[in-house]
């Protein structure tokens, strides 16, 4: 074959083809072109194959100087030009050695390979497509070539190949996509530009359905959005924008596979990538319909963190998407997985961002309203996290948590669990009780009913083993009862304790636990209006150990509360001292317990001075207010409130109060005894250690003789 070729091409031509000078190689190539034209006209294709073989083996694959390889490449291009329309049948011999030259270490060889392939492609055009994947692979590498001249030549060849592909009907997108997908995560900026350019060109061809293969390279495009090159980011964004517009106009889109990619990219550290991902998700939620139902949980997992993003644009789009998603009503038959969504919502309850935690709670409420039965199936896994959320530092979050709990607590056993947990939490976290107790209790009273909440609290506190905490908790509940506008109806019901069965039951229910605190018990009696006789008896029953600093602090609060609108009815009753004698005696009893220099003493004394006693009493009592009370009480006992007062067995209640206070006294004594024992033990240990240190530091033999103490004269 080589011998045939040597007889066809003159030796001088072959020598010139391997010459160092470009002009000689070019002229030799023109002579080869002419020879091939003659052979092609004569139909001597075997000889043409022999010429191609000679150029391939002796020149392009030559181990000798690189200008010989360059001559071989120019010669192969000349052969193709000489063959013109008949070149296609020899492409399998011509193209491989040219492609192989792209891997040569010499940049000049790579350059001439680009030039040769460019000339070959110009001649064969569409017949060139069968080698497209190999050519694309070579161009992808050449686009990042270290030599600028090679890059320029590769760009020229790339443009020609694009023109050929766009006009060809033989191009196979199915074979090309795997090749594209493999290279989409390359980081080289030149390769990225090359890839985006091809994606854009192919997408512009009407007969090529790039949208159908978008999931295969979508992740790579999103990856380019965070490229350090502004130009690459811009090109990738332009390509993505075009695809998104096509999605909006296309009736058949595979939303599912792309949703997975978008969800992953929504967590990107790059701000622009997150914004673009959330924008796409927003459009998908609007367009995807039933296709996206199985992906709702994943989408929600991407949206919720973005609601608290530092970038306002991302927050706005994320909120809008969240609202769109929550407005869609899907059922399990469509693949809606409520369990998966609850897992996401539970996870985001631990988010460091308040806005995200709030939206997670909105999802709990939404799912609970839509499908209580389905929600209840997963309640065991989410009830504890929801209870823990009551300790959240945000008031807004706590209020929403309470709303969710209120919906759950429509079932009584969940209500009991909630109330028990609150007591347990307040017991372990006194700061929460102090700072959030009122907020939590008041909101629960609004959501679940004040009477129901207070009755349950009272029932739990009756059996509370920690008496100190029980007293603190009762005082807190009592203060909320006396001050909160949300509990106005509960106060009104208590005022009817002696004339209404419901009021009586409520009074007795609260009284059982209110006994933990003397001041709470007295406050409860004052609220009940006509239980003043019992309030006075409670005051009289207090012992010396009951009146401590904590008691006086609570008493101070009560005196100040008596001046608020809540107790306006009580102050008005003082206008009729003859009718409300036990009220007067109760107030004077409280006055006698207060230190005279305290502000509360002065407030109450000033109030009692305004009581309008009758002229007859003033004359007979020598202006002694308390003697007036005794006089009025003796008269009043014979004619007032006896039927109503007997509606409640106050003697039994007084015994109940006394029994509870005795428990507190015993508890206090035990605490004091324990402290004394502990102090004595510590002192004993200190003495023992001191004696041991003294004995070890002073040996027996070195001690001076003891001296008898001198007598004191």
UniProtKB/TrEMBL annotation:
- Biological processes per GO annotation: phosphatidylinositol biosynthetic process
Instruction: Please name the Pfam families in this protein's record.
Output: Vac14_Fab1_bd (PF12755), Vac14_Fig4_bd (PF11916)
Which residue stretches belong to region Disordered?
A: 683-713
* Family, per entry: Belongs to the VAC14 family.
Q: Does the keyword Repeat apply?
A: yes
Could you name the Gene Ontology cellular component terms for this entry?
endomembrane system; PAS complex
Lineage of the organism = Eukaryota, Viridiplantae, Streptophyta, Embryophyta, Tracheophyta
Q: Where on the tree of life does the source sit, at the highest rank?
A: Eukaryota
Domain Vacuolar protein 14 C-terminal Fig4-binding: where? 432-611
> Which InterPro entries would you find in this protein's record?
ARM-like, ARM-type_fold, HEAT_type_2, Vac14, VAC14_Fig4p-bd
Q: Which Gene3D superfamilies match?
A: Leucine-rich Repeat Variant
Question: Any keyword Glycoprotein?
Answer: no
Predominant localisation class: membrane
What are the UniProt keywords, alphabetically?
Membrane, Repeat
Task: Name its cellular compartments.
Answer: Endomembrane system
Which ranges does the UniProt record give for the HEAT repeats?
Answer: 94-129
Provide the protein name: Vacuolar protein 14 C-terminal Fig4-binding domain-containing protein
């Amino acid at each position: 074959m080589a011998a045939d070729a040597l007889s066809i091409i003159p030796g001088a031509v072959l020598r010139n083809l391997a010459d160092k000078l470009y002009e000689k190689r070019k002229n030799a190539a023109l002579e080869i072109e002419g020879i091939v034209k003659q052979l092609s006209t004569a139909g001597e294709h075997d000889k043409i194959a022999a010429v191609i073989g000679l150029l391939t083996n002796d020149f392009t694959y030559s181990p000798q100087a690189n200008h010989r390889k360059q001559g071989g490449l120019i010669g192969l291009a000349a052969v193709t030009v000489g063959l013109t329309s008949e070149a296609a049948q020899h492409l399998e011999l011509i193209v491989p050695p040219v492609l192989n030259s792209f891997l040569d270490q010499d940049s000049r060889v790579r350059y001439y390979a680009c030039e040769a392939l460019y000339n070959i492609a110009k001649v064969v055009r569409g017949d060139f497509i069968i080698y497209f994947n190999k050519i694309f692979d070579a161009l992808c590498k050449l686009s990042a070539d270290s030599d600028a001249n090679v890059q320029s030549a590769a760009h020229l060849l790339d443009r020609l190949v694009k023109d050929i592909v766009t006009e060809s009907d033989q191009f196979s997108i199915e074979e090309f996509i795997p090749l594209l997908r493999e290279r989409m995560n390359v980081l080289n900026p030149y390769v990225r530009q090359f890839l985006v350019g091809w994606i854009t060109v192919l997408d512009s061809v009407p007969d090529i359905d790039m949208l159908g293969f978008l999931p295969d390279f979508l992740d790579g495009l999103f990856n380019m959005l965070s490229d350090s090159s502004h130009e690459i980011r811009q090109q990738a964004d332009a390509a993505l924008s075009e695809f998104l517009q096509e999605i909006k106009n296309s009736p058949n889109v595979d939303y599912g596979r792309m949703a997975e990619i978008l969800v992953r990219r929504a967590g990107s550290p790059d701000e622009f990538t997150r914004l673009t991902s959330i924008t796409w998700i927003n459009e998908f939620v609007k367009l995807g319909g039933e296709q996206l139902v199985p992906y709702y949980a994943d989408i929600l997992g991407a949206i919720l963190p973005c609601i608290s993003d530092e970038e306002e644009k991302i927050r706005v789009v994320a909120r809008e998407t969240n609202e769109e998603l929550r407005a869609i009503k899907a059922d399990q038959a469509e693949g809606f997985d409520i369990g998966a969504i609850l897992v996401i919502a539970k996870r985001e309850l631990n988010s460091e961002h308040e806005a995200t935690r709030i939206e997670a709670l909105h999802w709990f409420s939404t799912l609970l309203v839509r499908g209580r039965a389905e929600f209840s199936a997963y309640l065991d896994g989410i009830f504890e996290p929801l209870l823990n959320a009551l300790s959240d530092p945000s008031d807004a979050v706590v209020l929403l948590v309470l709303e969710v709990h209120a919906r759950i607590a429509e079932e009584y056993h969940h209500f009991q669990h909630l109330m028990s947990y609150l007591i347990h939490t307040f017991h372990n976290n006194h700061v929460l009780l102090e700072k959030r107790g009122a907020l939590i209790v008041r909101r629960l009273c609004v959501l679940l009913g004040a009477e129901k909440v207070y009755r349950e609290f009272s029932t739990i506190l009756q059996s509370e083993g920690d008496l100190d905490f029980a007293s603190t908790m009762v005082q807190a509940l009592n203060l909320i009862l006396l001050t909160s506008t949300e509990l106005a109806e509960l106060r009104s019901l208590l005022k009817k304790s002696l004339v209404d069965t419901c009021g009586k039951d409520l009074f007795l229910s609260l009284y059982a636990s209110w006994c933990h605190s003397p001041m709470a018990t007295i406050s409860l009696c004052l609220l009940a209006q006509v239980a003043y006789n019992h309030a006075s008896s409670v005051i009289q029953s207090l012992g010396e150990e009951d009146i401590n600093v904590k008691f006086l602090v609570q008493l101070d609060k009560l005196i100040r509360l008596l001046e608020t609108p809540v107790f306006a009815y009580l102050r008005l009753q003082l206008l009729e001292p003859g009718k409300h004698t036990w009220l007067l005696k109760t107030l004077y009893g409280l006055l006698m317990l207060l230190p005279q220099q305290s502000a509360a003493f002065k407030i109450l004394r000033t109030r009692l001075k305004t009581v309008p006693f009758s002229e007859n009493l003033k004359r007979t009592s020598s202006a002694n207010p308390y003697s007036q009370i005794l006089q009025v009480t003796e008269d009043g006992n014979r004619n007032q409130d006896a039927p109503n007062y007997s509606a409640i067995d106050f003697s039994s209640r007084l015994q109940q109060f006394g029994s509870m206070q005795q428990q507190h006294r015993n508890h206090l004594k035990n605490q004091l005894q324990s402290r004394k024992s502990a102090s004595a033990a510590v002192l004993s240990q200190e003495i023992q250690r001191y004696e041991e240190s003294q004995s070890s530091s002073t040996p027996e033999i070195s001690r001076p003789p003891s001296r008898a103490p001198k007598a004191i004269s």
